């Protein structure tokens, strides 16, 4: 401990001497800076004495008194002029001088007289420190706006408060301890740091959190001092029952402190008191806005709905314990998301409130409505259930531009107070931010719904196209049956066509159902000629189809490729005369398998092929949907292939499907299957 005391006071002496030199170099405020520099030098001298000689020496005690008088003079220059100022400071200085005199006199006497003088000296020193602490605190609060004075007064309050605390502990403990000497040195070093950064470019700006923590630590220190003093008093007066009394005192004070610290209302009250008396504004806008933004942003794990996060963020701004969101529905406000709000109404609020908030954009203080001091139009617009809910404190309109998207009802804070201009300003800005979030969320929801409808319409259009093809196919079969019903071969082809149509209609029904979509079939080896012949056999009752070319194996999805061929063959049949065959040509070129659908029908001009053929909902047929060629190309592209077309008006059309050729291993596996 002795080493810590020496190091602490030696470093404090160097720090204080350096700060004093910096004060002398400043040309502004010569008298004040000279007095401050003298107090710093005297403090440095006292710290050196404690480090080199010891705090109990008479000369060091005299240096300590000189130090205290120097700081008292500096505080006198800071304190605003008043009639009582001179008398108060003279009385404090007299107490300090008298205490020093008693300390010196005590060195020359012994026995009870020495003890009495020491106790009187300590009492006078505590009285002077307490009075100086009060004056420093008063100066700090009254001079907040004067550059650096608040920090300097706060440093002096810290100095005299530390002196008072260590003297009180020494008195309660019945003697001086080495730990108290170390505490005085640390407090003096901290005072030097505060003075060094107090003004100009070095102005120390304490955050609200630091001040609150400092107040909490100071309060805890005072409580500790009070507990130690109380324990000392009980030990001195308790006699034989002192141990029992000390135990009861410890248990009682511990339970009381635990109860007070766990009381949410007391914590809120302390925050309000500190903010009201130590700061110009109620809110620490930086930290408040950072907390507000963090609450609005959803966390990565278990995100809450935006509406609930918005209510929480708005309520936490004013320390409201609960909040309720009212959303616009049919031009009226209805209860929506809630945060800790009990018994939210289920019926719609009066539409008059929505109209009033949209027209005025004014925050409604419900206490004014209840007291009858609110404007008549506002009082008439507020619904009865909100007036009857005593916990309801204010209604904040949520305006996105000029449009009302809702309103926020905030519960009364734990420490009740009226809404004021700071609340209106902060809540107004936050409400516009929340309104933009809610409006954007509504826009996203509407866009998602529109996309779902668009997807539904797109799928339904494809289904209608397929259904039209099936109807056309059945119509051709019925027309041909009138001429070839007696032909056994035609009847066999007709049965195959009907079976194919039935299967395709089952597929359409499956696509129309609400069951989840089937997983896409993986690409595999598909013999093109076998597939083409099967499709041709199923359609011969509809129209004559010829398959030419040798067997080529492609890598494709069989169901998708069959759908593509169905579209292209149907278009070819509708474009051809009844006696003109449609040709399915199989071939290959390098690593590509080719399948062509050729007709000798009416054909298409180059402009239509270039600009309209593969565009959805554009068709050259009177009753066409314009989706067959579009879906065919999409499906072929999904299989890694390409669909090209060459056509000439009056000569016919050739659609060429180029797909990846299956590897040898895949063809062997296909034959084995």
From TrEMBL:
Q: Which Gene3D superfamilies match?
A: 3.30.450.40, Histidine kinase-like ATPase, C-terminal domain
Report which superkingdom the organism of origin falls in. Answer: Bacteria
Matches recorded under Pfam families = GAF, HATPase_c
List GO molecular-function terms, semicolon-separated: protein histidine kinase activity
Q: What class of enzyme is it?
A: transferase
Membrane-spanning parts: 37-63, 84-104, 124-141, 153-174, 180-197, 209-236, 242-261
SMART domains per the UniProt record, alphabetical:
HATPase_c (SM00387)
- Is Transport found in the keyword set? no
Residues annotated as signal peptide: 1-22
UniProt entry keywords in alphabetical sequence: Kinase, Membrane, Phosphoprotein, Signal, Transferase, Transmembrane, Transmembrane helix
**Entry's InterPro entries?**
GAF, GAF-like_dom_sf, HATPase_C_sf, HATPase_dom, His_kinase_dom, Sig_transdc_His_kin-like_C, XrtA/PrsK
Q: Which reaction does it catalyse?
A: ATP + protein L-histidine = ADP + protein N-phospho-L-histidine
Q: What is its EC number?
A: 2.7.13.3
Q: Which residues form the Histidine kinase domain?
A: 462-663
Task: Return the PANTHER family for the record.
Answer: HYBRID SIGNAL TRANSDUCTION HISTIDINE KINASE C (PTHR43547:SF2), TWO-COMPONENT HISTIDINE KINASE (PTHR43547)
Name-wise, this protein is histidine kinase
Its encoding gene is what?
Answer: prsK
């Amino acid at each position: 401990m002795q080493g810590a005391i020496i190091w602490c006071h030696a470093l404090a002496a160097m720090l204080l001497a350096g700060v004093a030199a910096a004060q002398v170099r400043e040309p502004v405020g010569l008298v004040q800076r000279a007095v401050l520099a003298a107090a710093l030098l005297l403090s440095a001298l006292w710290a050196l004495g404690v480090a080199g000689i010891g705090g109990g020496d008479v000369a060091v005690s005299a240096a300590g008194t000189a130090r205290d008088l120097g700081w008292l003079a500096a505080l006198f220059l800071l304190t605003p002029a008043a009639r009582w100022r001179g008398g108060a400071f003279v009385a404090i200085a007299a107490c300090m001088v008298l205490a020093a005199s008693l300390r010196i006199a005590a060195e020359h006497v012994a026995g009870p007289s020495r003890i009495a003088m020491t106790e009187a000296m300590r009492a006078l020193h505590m009285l002077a420190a307490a009075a100086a602490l009060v004056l420093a605190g008063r100066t700090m609060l009254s001079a907040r706006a004067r550059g650096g004075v608040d920090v300097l007064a706060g440093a002096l309050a810290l100095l005299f408060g530390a002196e008072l605390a260590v003297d009180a502990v020494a008195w309660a403990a019945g003697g001086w301890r080495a730990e108290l000497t170390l505490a005085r040195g640390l407090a003096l070093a901290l005072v030097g740091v505060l003075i060094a950064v107090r003004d100009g470019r070095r102005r120390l700006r304490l955050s609200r959190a630091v001040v609150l923590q400092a107040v909490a630590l100071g309060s805890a220190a005072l409580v500790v001092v009070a507990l130690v003093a109380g324990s000392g008093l009980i030990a001195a007066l308790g006699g034989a029952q002192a141990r029992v009394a000390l135990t009861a005192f410890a248990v009682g004070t511990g339970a009381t402190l635990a109860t007070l610290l766990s009381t949410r209302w007391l914590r809120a009250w302390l925050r309000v008191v500190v903010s009201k008396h130590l700061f110009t504004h109620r809110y620490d806008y930086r930290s408040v806005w950072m907390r507000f933004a963090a609450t609005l942003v959803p966390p990565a794990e278990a995100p809450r709905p935006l509406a609930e996060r918005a209510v929480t963020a708005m309520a936490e701004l004013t320390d409201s314990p609960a909040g309720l969101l009212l959303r616009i529905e049919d031009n009226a406000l209805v209860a929506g998301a809630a945060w800790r709000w009990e018994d939210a109404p289920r019926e719609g609020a009066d539409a008059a409130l929505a109209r009033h908030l949209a027209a005025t954009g004014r925050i409604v203080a419900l206490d004014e409505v209840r007291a009858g001091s609110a404007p008549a139009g506002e009082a008439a617009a507020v619904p009865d259930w909100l007036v009857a809910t005593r916990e309801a404190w204010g209604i904040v309109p949520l305006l996105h531009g000029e449009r009302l998207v809702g309103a926020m009802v905030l519960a009364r804070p734990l420490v009740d107070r009226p809404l004021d201009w700071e609340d209106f300003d902060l809540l107004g800005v936050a409400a516009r931010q929340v309104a933009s979030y809610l409006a954007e969320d509504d826009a996203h929801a509407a866009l998602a719904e529109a996309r779902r409808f668009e997807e539904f319409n797109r799928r339904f259009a494809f289904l209608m196209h397929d259904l039209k093809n099936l109807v056309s196919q059945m119509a051709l079969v019925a027309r041909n049956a009138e001429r070839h019903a007696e032909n056994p071969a035609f009847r066999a082809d007709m049965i195959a066509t009907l079976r194919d149509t039935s299967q395709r209609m089952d597929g359409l029904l499956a696509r129309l159902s609400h069951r989840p979509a089937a997983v896409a079939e993986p690409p595999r080896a598909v013999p093109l000629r076998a597939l083409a012949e099967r499709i041709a056999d199923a359609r011969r009752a509809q129209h004559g189809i010829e398959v030419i070319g040798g067997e080529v194996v492609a890598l494709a999805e069989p169901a998708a490729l069959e759908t593509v061929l169905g579209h292209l063959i149907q278009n070819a049949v509708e474009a051809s005369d009844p006696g003109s065959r449609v040709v399915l040509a199989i071939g290959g070129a390098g690593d590509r398998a080719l399948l062509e659908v050729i007709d000798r029908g009416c054909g298409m001009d180059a402009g239509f092929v270039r600009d309209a053929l593969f565009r959805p909902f554009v068709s050259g047929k009177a009753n066409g949907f314009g989706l067959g060629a579009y879906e065919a190309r999409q499906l072929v592209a999904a299989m890694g292939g390409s669909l090209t077309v060459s056509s000439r008006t009056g000569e016919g059309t050739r659609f060429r499907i180029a797909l990846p050729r299956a590897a040898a291993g895949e063809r062997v596996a296909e034959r084995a299957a």
